[in-house]
């Protein structure tokens, strides 16, 4: 059976897409694999994102901010995580894939007290985790039979939660 490859895509690939990649891979079985990338990677993974993942018990070894130009695999599904409602422009992946948008506010841009900034990271993580869990609960045999249109609609619905 072919591995289903999911790309979590953002502009900088320093925070939200990294959180999604690590969380997805920790929760998914061997039939699915997530990667993350950015259209304009920052070149680093945000230290607060790394700390949050470690607190959750996830390995952060080998994580780095990567460009979508350097992908080693072709994704089957691309999920953008930029918060387009906040004026961010999400990159558009140009390959023939199933796409969904799961906009999440960028905690790397959070301001305020240490507690408020930490809360922004925790909120972003919890939103992504709930969506990933909903994704993983989908009845995959049903989606394989119906093709990509139904799956794309369901992924969009998850992104609205």
UniProtKB/TrEMBL annotation:
CDD domains in UniProt: LMWP_ArsC (cd16345)
EC number: 3.1.3.48
InterPro entries: Ptyr_pPase, Ptyr_pPase_sf
Keyword Hydrolase: yes
Broadest EC class assigned to this enzyme: hydrolase
Annotated Phosphotyrosine protein phosphatase I domain residues: 4-138
Entry protein name: ArsC family transcriptional regulator
Species in which this protein is naturally found: Acidithiobacillus ferrivorans
């Amino acid at each position: 059976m072919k591995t289903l490859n999911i790309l979590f895509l953002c502009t900088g690939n320093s925070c939200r897409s990294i959180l999604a990649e690590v969380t997805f891979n920790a929760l998914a079985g061997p039939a699915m694999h997530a990667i993350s990338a950015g259209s304009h990677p920052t070149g680093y993974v945000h230290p607060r994102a790394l700390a949050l993942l470690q607190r959750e018990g996830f390995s952060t070894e080998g994580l780095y901010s990567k460009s979508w130009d350097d992908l080693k695999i072709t994704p089957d599904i691309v999920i953008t995580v930029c918060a387009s409602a906040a004026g961010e422009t999400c990159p558009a992946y140009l390959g023939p894939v199933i796409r969904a948008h799961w906009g999440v506010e960028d905690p790397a841009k959070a301001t305020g007290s240490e507690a408020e900034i930490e809360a922004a990271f925790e909120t972003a993580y919890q939103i992504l985790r709930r969506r990933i869990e909903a994704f993983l609960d989908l009845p995959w045999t049903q989606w394989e039979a119906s093709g990509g249109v139904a799956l794309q609609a369901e992924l969009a619905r998850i992104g609205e939660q």
